[in-house]
Amino acid sequence: MTTTIVDATSVPWVNGADVYMSMEPAFRNNLGGPLERVEELLSRYSMRTLWIDPGTTRRIDHVRTDPGYVDLCEAYHDSVEECFFLSGSVELTAEGDFQAGDYFWRPPGWVHMARSPEGFEGILMMEGESPSDGSGRVSRVIRPDSDAGCNPIREGEQSIGPRGYVRRAEARHMVWRRHDDSVTALGSAELTSKVLSSNAVTAAASVLVAVPAGCSTQIAPSDRERFLISTTGTITVDGHDLEPCSLIHVPPGAAAPTLSTDDGAELLVKVGAAA
Fold first, then answer.
1. Cβ–Cβ under 8 Å, residues 94 and 148
2. Could you tell me what percent of the chain has a pLDDT over 90?
């Protein structure tokens, strides 16, 4: 397997209404209203698909909504869902108000819906099938309003998953710390980071990493799958200049690229369990 580089500028924005039929049936068929209302809802939602794995149903999308976006109903997913917000604001049931720099990691089963009067933009990640993170296939299951903020399918520790239920991490208020590279294997001692979520059993994690201006690093090989998604600044990967929201996928054991930045950048680094 080889490293894949996805240049965000080469990925077109697609309106949600145009990809309705390509959604997972367990998601598409549970959006919570008649087709006319679903189409109107999706017309306010746009996405750039940075990664999709039909086998596990994992997907990573750069998403944005128009002002006035409101889900049609409360629902839960069988998959872990996580998001890092880039701009705008959104209110999520029982989780609070999110703005740029905020993050959540939601285990399967927690009932929620989104309201965004001004619109928002973010990196949205559906884990898909991943036993080590307690995640099932991507789906959407409609629930009554009275279930908002509850988990009707799991109880106790099973309900919070191996990372804990990270309802709202205000990364903008976290301190940058010297980066512990033991899991991410990015290969530089110059980095600083903020841990957003971490699996207590496997050490799989999602980490916001700051790469200082002038830094160049040879990413080390690893037995873990890694996704690097740029959130701010321009990075250069094996000679390719990549704008924000580009993605680098490094499979376990694959030769990893060289990464550098002239003016500084931040990366959302998503690391899986050891193979």
1. yes
2. 96
Among 77, 2, 120, 82, residue whose Cα is nearest residue 270: 82
Supply 59's token pair. 């997907």
Number of Cβ within a 10 Å radius of residue 152? 14
> Would you say residue 159 has pLDDT above 90?
yes
Q: Where are the alpha helices (DSSP H) in 120-246?
A: 156-160
Q: Please list the residues that pair with 60 across neighbouring strands.
A: 51, 125
H or E segment at 45? strand 45-52
| CA dist., res. 238 & res. 241, Å (int) | 9
Quick one: tokens of 261?
Answer: 């930045």
- 166 touches 105 (CB < 8 A): yes
* 3-state percent breakdown (helix, strand, coil) of the chain, nearest 5: 15, 45, 45
Backbone CA torsion sign across 222, 228, 233, 237: positive
Distance of CA 96 to the CA centre of its chain: 18
The two beta strands, 81-92 and 166-170, are unpaired
pTM: 0.96
pLDDT band, residue 47 (cuts 50/70/90):
very high
Retrieve residue 247's tokens: 């993605």
Q: What average pLDDT does range 25-34 have in this prediction?
A: 92
User: Could you tell me which of 24, 207, 32 has the C-alpha nearest to residue 126?
Assistant: 24
> What is the reported pLDDT for 1?
82
The residue among 60, 83, 57 whose CA lies nearest residue 140 is 57
- Direct distance between the N- and C-terminal alpha carbons of the chain, in angstroms, rounded to an integer: 13
**Quick count: other Cβ atoms within 10 Å of Cβ 193?**
23
Cα→Cα distances 18→10, 15, 45, 84, Å: 18, 5, 10, 24
Higher pLDDT residue, 1 or 80?
80
Evaluate whether 169 touches 125 at the Cβ level (below 8 Å): no
